[in-house]
Predict the structure.
Amino acid sequence: MKKISLIVLIIVLIAFPLSAQKQLTADPSATQIKWTGKKLGKEHVGSIGLKEGYIRIDKNAITGGEFIVDMTTITNIDVKDEKMNGMLVGHLKSDDFFGVVKFPASKLVLTGGSSFVNGTATVKGTMTIKQSTHPVEFTVKETSAGGVKTYTAVITVDRSLYDVRYGSGKFFTDLGDKAISDEFTLEVTLVAKS
């Protein structure tokens, strides 16, 4: 009887191996998201806050995750004049750009990735801004210290895909030096722990 039980256990373990999957919870207070937007000869830089999120790791690869970004926290750090800074941030929050009253959150969903090699992997997923969802792919670097994992990435986003049209040459002509690049970048430093 013991022999049969052992054989059954071995068969179960072969058919359904124990998963090494871990889910790590993002630390919003330690995580940083820096945005950079550009136009001819100029750029603006600021930050956005992470509301919540998690990342799943299995066999040295990111297998999933979801992150909610609080669009109401958009800030600018390069415009020093307080009034001009407020106007810029207000414009970014307006319907011309991200319409944060109607769309207070954006979302990044990770669907999978390659195995980490020398601490680097490629990750795929979808990003939702306003009402639009599109695929994204980017490189992630992983470091670890004291049970805390840090993931860094630069994600390039084409805002025109997400109905963020203000100053876009794809939607308006004769913009001249008022044209704003359709691409902006998000430099993410994600801090997560189990």
In short: The first strand starts at residue 22 and ends at 26. Strands lie at 22-26, 32-39, 42-58, 61-76, 105-113, 120-129, 132-145, 148-158, 180-193. Helices lie at 2-15, 82-93. The chain has two helices and nine strands.
